[in-house]
Amino acid sequence: MFISKHEVEVRYAETDQMGVVYHANYLIWMDLGRTKLIKELGFSYKKLEEDGVLCPVLEASVKYKKPFRFGETATIHTWINEYNGIRIVYGYKIFTPNNEVGIEGTTSHVCVKNDSFKPINFKKHYPHWHEEYMKAMNK
């Protein structure tokens, strides 16, 4: 399985009154990881949007295991957890500077036409992406 890695330095603005990263900011980090994974596979969200296709999040799950604090470096690991040609589930683990799992999560997506929000068959409309996603999952 192909795993993309992306480092993020925790910024002060991402922390809350308790001095740890505010819980919703991890979704932004997951988005950074997903975007990097797609780029490393040779594709871009921008190109999809130019084609009139969007890939909204249908579901997000986050398990908070260890907090991150200002000045620390978080390492986001992202991979394709599930893919069937239509629905895509990305997996994430965000590691602390001590290489401990701080966050685990998934996001589920379906690509849709921008004008109607009707789902598209990703396998049919983007066969090259489909092939690379299958390779990235080692299938």
TrEMBL record:
Family matches, as SUPFAM superfamilies: Thioesterase/thiol ester dehydrase-isomerase
EC number: 3.1.2.-
Keywords associated with the record: Hydrolase
NCBIfam families, per database record: YbgC/FadM family acyl-CoA thioesterase (TIGR00051)
Organism: Bacillus carboniphilus
Listed PANTHER family: 4-HYDROXYBENZOYL-COA THIOESTERASE FAMILY MEMBER, NOVEL THIOESTERASE SUPERFAMILY DOMAIN AND SAPOSIN A-TYPE DOMAIN CONTAINING PROTEIN (0610012H03RIK)
Phylogenetic classification of the source organism: Bacteria, Bacillati, Bacillota, Bacilli, Bacillales
The organism's place on the tree of life at top rank: Bacteria
Protein name: Thioesterase family protein
InterPro entries, A to Z: 4-hydroxybenzoyl-CoA_TE, HotDog_dom_sf, YbgC/YbaW
CDD domains: 4HBT (cd00586)
Keyword Hydrolase listed: yes
Ubl conjugation keyword on record: no
GO MF: hydrolase activity
Family: Belongs to the 4-hydroxybenzoyl-CoA thioesterase family.
Coiled coil: none
